Automatic annotation (TrEMBL):
NCBIfam families: parB_part (TIGR00180)
Highest classification ranks of the organism: Bacteria, Pseudomonadati, Bacteroidota, Cytophagia, Cytophagales
Limits of the ParB-like N-terminal domain: 42-132
Family: Belongs to the ParB family.
Region (Disordered): 16-38
Biological process according to GO: chromosome segregation
GO cellular component: chromosome
Name of the protein in its database record: ParB/RepB/Spo0J family partition protein
Single GO term (MF): DNA binding
Amino acid sequence: MAKKILKKRQALGKGLSALLSDSPSSNNREETNDSPSLGSISEIALSVIEVNPFQPRKEFDRESLQELADSISTQGVIQPITVRQLETGRYQLISGERRLQAARIANLETLPAYIRTANDQQMLEMALIENIQREDLNSIEIALSYQRLVTECNLKQEELGKRVGKNRTTVNNYMRLLKLPPEIQKGLQEKKIDMGHARPLVNLENIEQQLYIYQRIVNEKLSVREVEKLVKQLSNKQEPTPKTVDSNIPTHEITRLQADLSTHFGTKIKVNTLGKEKGEIKIPFHSVSELNRILDIIKNE
């Protein structure tokens, strides 16, 4: 059945498929009506295309997919997907998940596809590299994809750089971000800080110092240059962190104060000393009603 729905198209280029090695004999053989040649572009029925089980991207924006589907309905599929043929005669997607989903939304019956040979590791590698080339990835998502390529595809950083078109230093800078505490990584993902802010923090070995500067970046909107200066000061022990300050308030007094405030407000209060005469009091709340209760206590003082 699958053989009847294949129609040869003129090749448009290799793209990511350059990572895959087609057999020379299959590239040179003549095209027949019964079987498409490897490396060619053929029209394949959507009904015989299976998704890529190694696809690292799980969530797709529905609005963006609909826009792509509308474009496909008007202009057709400009960039073919890439597939491999299974022993069953069906096809498995290597790259082009968004195009495949959008084509289904657009109610297409067939889709242009490169046919390639690929083992499971190559399937994973292709899917990860295509994912990295998306424009909307944050730096942590890129770093995690690089890490998977190194660990699961057994690529060295230099080889990985060649695969993704980046030099080794760039790849290393991304992967080093994974050494940061989860809170800072989450901040990168939520775009509270950018990679320029995060890179200097990796040079600090003390997690408390990293989190201290991270909070200052978020609260004070520090520039990258200010962060680099602050990291240098901490490295030279010119700037105290919350745990290294020389406070005039005895530790037992802080503990007693925290206990008294926690009892008064009915929630666990945190008191931090930031200098000899500086500090902050954190009053957490877990719901709007709890916030209103705390505010009522403050107002009635």
